[in-house]
Amino acid sequence: MSRVSLSRYLIEQTRSHNTPADLRFLIEVVARACKEISHAVSKGALGGVLGSMGTENVQGEVQKKLDVLSNEILLEANEWGGTLAGMASEEMDNAYQIPGQYPKGAYLLTFDPLDGSSNIDVNVSVGTIFSVLRCPGECFSQNEPLGEEAFLQPGTKQVAAGYAIYGPQTMLILTLGDGVKGFTLDREMGSWVLTHDDIRVPESTAEFAINMSNQRHWEAPVQRYVNELLEGKAGPLGKDYNMRWIASMVADVHRILTRGGLFMYPRDSRDPSKPGKLRLMYEANPMSMLIEQAGGASTDGHQRILDIQPTSLHQRVAVYLGSKEEVERVTGYHHQA
Ligand code: AHG
Ligand code: MN
Ligand code: MN
């Protein structure tokens, strides 16, 4: 059987679903940048890319060399092609302006250039998460700098979302709003090959992912739910659950897209100004679109994440995503509280 490459899949989408040619080109360029990041990640100490930069990003987190390098790779790959009106990244304070010498386009790209930074130096899977929005109105044709407001659209407005995972295999998981496809990087050929045609999240699961060390800071509904999970067969849920926590959202979500599960990063009582750790625009929205497109669910405990109207670029949210039954259960506990 002939192999279907990412390029061929995108061209077929253009024919069958009217995917615009500029969106196709944009996805191709993002995927090419991810190939480059994958290469840098896999070199590790040989490429001199491990360790920290000695700087902090806008959220006060220490930047690793690979956070900064991946950010640069994505900016350089995407700034000249004429498909974008601007970009925003977890690693940059403000919206990135397309340099004046290049044409502008109709889309906005947001990304977490390297997710799971704490795992880089220990050789555990990391990834790149991205989301594509349309630039509202004619914002790309204006000469004024692009403001933050253009990006502040609910996740339902995403036209594409995906991630690359740099693990034992490098894979690209993508949705254009018509199901979820998985491509594996064939390193010898340098091409992304469609290997997972219709990714689905099972509705029920007996596996959950949460950083248990934060337990004392969680709110009552999460305490109740996780206690019930830990009670297993003898408790009200009547079954034994298994726990996994990789601490790279891409890797935890990848496991859930592969065999089901529930991922939780609850809101934390430590700093009321930060409702959760994960970022709405770079992490929660793209992952929620993928999970929903695969038949799963995603909420912040109270509402569907994709319905949240963002108020700032670097906004954080609580995240509960994965197999429908468990997401609905933990969300229900929040509503009862
Ligand atoms: P990033 O490396 O982009 O800052 O994101 C890390 C996130 C996410 O990948 C993961 O789920 C979570 O932080 C891990 O948090 P803990 O440190 O609480 O395990
Ligand atoms: Mn991240
Ligand atoms: Mn990151």
TrEMBL record:
Gene3D superfamilies in the record, alphabetically? Answer: 3.40.190.80, Fructose-1,6-Bisphosphatase, subunit A, domain 1
Q: Which residues form the Fructose-1-6-bisphosphatase class I N-terminal domain?
A: 5-196
Q: For Mg(2+) 1, which residues are the binding ones?
A: E90, D112, L114
Keywords, comma-separated and alphabetical: Carbohydrate metabolism, Cytoplasm, Hydrolase, Magnesium, Metal-binding
Spell out the Pfam families in the cross-references. Answer: FBPase, FBPase_C
- Localization (cell): Cytoplasm
* Keyword Metal-binding in annotation: yes
Cofactor comment text: Binds 2 magnesium ions per subunit.
Q: EC number(s) in its UniProt entry?
A: 3.1.3.11
What one GO molecular function would you report for this record? fructose 1,6-bisphosphate 1-phosphatase activity
Q: Where is the Fructose-1-6-bisphosphatase class 1 C-terminal domain?
A: 201-334
Q: Which residues bind substrate?
A: D115, G116, S117, S118, N211, K277
| Reaction(s) this enzyme catalyzes, per UniProt | beta-D-fructose 1,6-bisphosphate + H2O = beta-D-fructose 6-phosphate + phosphate
Look up the record and name the cofactor or cofactors this protein needs.
Mg(2+)
Which CDD domains did the record assign? FBPase (cd00354)
Gene Ontology cellular-component annotations: cytosol
Q: What biological process terms from GO does the record include?
A: fructose 1,6-bisphosphate metabolic process; fructose 6-phosphate metabolic process; fructose metabolic process; gluconeogenesis; sucrose biosynthetic process
- Pathway the protein takes part in: Carbohydrate biosynthesis
**Residues given in the record as Mg(2+) 2 binding sites:** D112, D115, E283
The entry's family comment says: Belongs to the FBPase class 1 family.
- Which PANTHER family does its entry note? FRUCTOSE-1,6-BISPHOSPHATASE-RELATED, SEDOHEPTULOSE-1,7-BISPHOSPHATASE, CHLOROPLASTIC
Subunit structure of this chain's protein:
Homotetramer.
- What is the recorded name of this protein? Fructose-1,6-bisphosphatase class 1
Query: Species name for this entry?
Result: Pseudomonas kuykendallii
